[in-house]
C-alpha cells in the first residue's frame, strides 16, 4: 500500500494535543499514513477542534472554507472534523459545509482509520460522535517521539457541570483509564527517555481507575504508583477541581517527593455569590482550607489558578473580592479569561448586562495583579539554587540549554549536550520577562556530568 499524507490542525487544550498525537500514532503505525505539515499536499485533512471559549463554530467554518479550495483542486482529498465542536454540532456541520467527509467525536477518534476507509469505498460521508466508554485508549501503544516530558491522559470527561462550562457536553462523563494501562504507558515513556509526566484530565482528582483484580484505585494511590516507576522523577497533574481535592491527596504531598511543589487548582472567582452561580460547589473559605492544609505538608508550594472575569451578574464588589483573594493566596502565574457564553450551558441563560469594555478592564486589572505576583515569586528565586530538568537547546540562543524548574520557570544556561534529559542544579542569576538565566557549576551538584 502506498503511503498517504495526513495533515492535522489542533486547537485548544492539552487534551486535544494529546488526542491529535493519538490520531497520528494510530494512522502512522497501523495504516501507512505519514503526518505532514503542509496542507496542500495532504490526502486527509483533519481539524481537531475546541469549543471551551472562543467563537469556536465560526472558527471551524472559516478553516473549512480554506480547505474547500484544496478539495476543489483535488476532489479525492478527505476532510475530517473532530473534537468538541464536532461532538456538539454533529450533522449541523455538514449542513453548512457539505464537502466535509467525516465528523468524529472526542471519544471516537480511534475509529478514524475505518471511517477513512468507508469514505473511500462508498464515496459517502460518515458521522460518528458516539460516547463509547474510553474505548479509544485500547488503541494506544505508545506515544510517537516523546521528549523529556510527556502528557498522559488518566481520565476523560467531567460530571461537574459548572454552569459556564461546555466540557461535560462535549467530552462526556468522567471515565478513568485502568491503572495498569496508565502505568504501562508511563513505563514505556520512561524507557524512551521521559523523566517528567503530566497526568492529564479535566478533573484528575476524580480518578477512580480499575486495578487488574477489579479493585478501585484513587488518584492519591495512582500518584504513589507512578512515583515508583524508575526514571520518572517529576510528576505534575492538570487539572483538579477543589471539591475533590481530598485529604488523601494532600497527604501524598508528604511522602511522595516526586510530586512537584507547584499546584494548579482553579478557583474561578473570589466571591461566594459568583461561585454559587457558577455551580462550583465549594466556597472561597473551603478553597482556602485546602491551601492551608497543603502548605502545611509542603511549605514552599506555589499555587496557580484559572479565573473567569465578567461572569453574568459579577458586580464590581464581586470582582474586588477576587482581587483580594489573589492577594491573600498569593497566586502565582495563572490563566484568566473573559466569560464566554457557551450555547446550551445554564449560564448562557443568565442576564449579562456588563459591557465588554468593562470586562476587558477587569481582565486587564486582574492580569496586572497576577503578573506582579509572578514577578515577586521570580525575584524570590534570584540567587537560589534550583533543580531543573534539562529539555534541550535554548530557543533563543542555540549555544545555551534550557530546562524547567519545579514551578515551571524556563531557565536558560550554558551547559553541555549530555545534560539533556538530566536533572541538574543551577544558580538563578537573572530574571528576564519570560524566562530566567541560570549558572551551572559542579559545586551545586553531586553529579558527575
Ligand atoms: N476542570 C477544570 C477546568 C477545565 S476548563 C476545573 O475544574 O476548573 C479550563 C478553564 O477554562 C476553566 O478553569 C475556566 O477558567 C475556563 N473556562 C471554561 N469555560 C469557560 C467559559 N465559558 N468562559 C470563560 N472561561 C471558561
Ligand atoms: Fe468544566 Fe467545571 Fe468540569 S469547569 S471541566 S464542568 S469541573
From TrEMBL:
Cofactor note: Binds 2 [4Fe-4S] clusters. One cluster is coordinated with 3 cysteines and an exchangeable S-adenosyl-L-methionine.
Cofactor(s) listed: [4Fe-4S] cluster
GO MF, one example: metal ion binding
A Pfam family: Radical_SAM
Positions that bind [4Fe-4S] cluster 2: 158, 162, 165
Binding site for [4Fe-4S] cluster 1: 13, 50, 84
Location of the MTTase N-terminal domain: 4-121
UniProt EC number: 2.8.4.3
Localization of this protein: Cytoplasm
Main localisation: cytoplasm
UniProt domain Radical SAM core: residue ranges: 144-376
Top-level taxonomic group: Bacteria
Keywords for the protein's UniProt record, in alphabetical order: 4Fe-4S, Cytoplasm, Iron, Iron-sulfur, Metal-binding, S-adenosyl-L-methionine, Transferase, tRNA processing
Reaction equation(s) it catalyzes: N(6)-dimethylallyladenosine(37) in tRNA + (sulfur carrier)-SH + AH2 + S-adenosyl-L-methionine = 2-thio-N(6)-dimethylallyladenosine(37) in tRNA + (sulfur carrier)-H + 5'-deoxyadenosine + L-methionine + A + H(+); N(6)-dimethylallyladenosine(37) in tRNA + (sulfur carrier)-SH + AH2 + 2 S-adenosyl-L-methionine = 2-methylsulfanyl-N(6)-dimethylallyladenosine(37) in tRNA + (sulfur carrier)-H + 5'-deoxyadenosine + L-methionine + A + S-adenosyl-L-homocysteine + 2 H(+); 2-thio-N(6)-dimethylallyladenosine(37) in tRNA + S-adenosyl-L-methionine = 2-methylsulfanyl-N(6)-dimethylallyladenosine(37) in tRNA + S-adenosyl-L-homocysteine + H(+)
Domain TRAM: from-to ranges: 379-442
Gene Ontology annotations for the cellular component aspect, listed alphabetically: cytosol
Subunit structure of this chain's protein: Monomer.
Cited HAMAP family: tRNA_metthiotr_MiaB
The name this protein goes by in its record: tRNA-2-methylthio-N(6)-dimethylallyladenosine synthase
Amino acid at each position: 500500500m502506498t503511503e498517504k499524507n495526513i495533515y492535522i490542525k489542533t486547537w485548544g487544550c492539552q487534551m486535544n494535543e494529546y488526542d491529535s498525537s493519538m490520531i497520528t500514532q494510530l494512522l502512522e503505525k497501523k495504516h501507512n499514513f505519514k503526518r505532514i505539515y503542509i496542507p496542500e499536499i495532504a490526502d486527509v485533512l483533519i481539524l481537531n477542534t475546541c469549543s471551551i471559549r472562543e467563537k469556536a463554530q465560526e472558527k471551524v467554518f472559516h478553516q473549512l472554507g480554506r480547505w474547500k479550495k484544496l478539495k476543489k483542486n483535488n476532489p479525492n482529498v478527505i476532510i475530517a472534523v473532530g473534537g468538541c465542536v464536532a461532538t456538539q454540532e454533529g450533522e449541523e456541520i455538514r449542513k453548512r459545509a457539505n464537502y466535509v467527509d467525516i465528523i468524529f467525536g472526542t471519544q471516537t477518534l480511534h475509529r478514524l482509520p475505518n471511517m477513512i476507509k468507508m469514505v473511500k469505498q462508498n464515496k459517502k460521508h460518515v458521522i460518528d460522535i458516539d460516547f463509547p466508554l474510553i474505548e479509544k485508549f485500547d488503541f494506544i501503544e505508545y506515544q510517537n517521539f516523546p521528549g523529556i516530558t510527556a502528557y498522559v491522559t488518566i481520565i476523560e470527561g467531567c460530571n461537574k457541570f459548572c454552569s459556564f462550562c461546555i466540557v461535560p457536553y462535549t467530552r462526556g462523563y468522567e471515565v478513568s483509564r485502568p491503572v495498569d494501562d496508565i502505568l504501562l504507558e508511563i513505563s514505556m515513556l520512561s524507557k524512551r527517555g521521559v523523566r517528567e509526566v503530566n497526568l492529564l484530565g479535566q478533573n484528575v482528582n476524580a480518578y477512580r481507575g480499575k486495578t487488574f483484580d477489579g479493585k478501585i484505585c484513587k488518584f492519591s494511590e495512582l500518584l504513589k504508583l507512578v512515583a515508583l516507576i524508575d526514571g520518572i522523577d517529576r510528576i505534575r497533574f492538570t487539572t483538579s477541581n477543589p471539591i475533590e481535592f481530598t485529604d488523601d491527596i494532600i497527604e501524598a504531598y508528604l511522602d511522595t517527593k516526586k510530586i512537584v511543589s507547584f499546584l494548579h487548582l482553579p478557583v474561578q472567582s473570589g466571591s461566594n455569590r459568583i461561585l454559587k452561580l457558577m455551580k462550583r460547589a465549594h466556597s472561597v473559605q473551603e478553597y482556602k482550607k485546602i491551601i492551608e492544609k497543603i502548605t502545611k505538608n509542603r511549605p514552599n508550594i506555589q499555587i496557580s489558578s484559572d479565573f473567569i472575569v465578567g461572569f453574568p451578574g459579577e458586580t464590581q464588589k464581586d470582582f474586588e473580592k477576587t482581587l483580594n483573594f489573589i492577594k491573600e493566596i498569593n497566586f502565582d502565574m495563572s490563566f484568566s479569561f473573559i466569560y464566554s457564553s457557551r450555547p446550551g450551558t445554564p449560564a448562557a441563560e443568565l442576564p449579562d448586562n456588563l459591557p465588554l469594555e468593562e470586562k476587558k478592564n477587569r481582565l486587564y486589572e486582574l492580569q496586572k495583579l497576577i503578573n506582579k505576583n509572578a514577578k515577586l515569586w521570580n525575584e524570590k528565586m534570584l540567587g537560589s539554587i534550583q533543580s531543573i530538568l534539562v529539555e534541550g537547546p535554548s530557543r533563543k540562543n542555540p549555544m545555551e540549554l534550557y530546562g524547567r524548574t519545579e514551578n515551571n520557570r524556563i531557565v536558560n544556561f550554558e551547559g553541555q549536550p549530555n545534560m539533556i534529559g538530566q536533572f541538574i542544579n543551577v544558580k538563578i542569576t537573572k530574571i528576564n520577562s519570560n524566562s530566567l538565566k541560570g549558572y551551572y557549576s559542579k559545586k551545586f551538584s553531586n553529579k558527575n556530568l
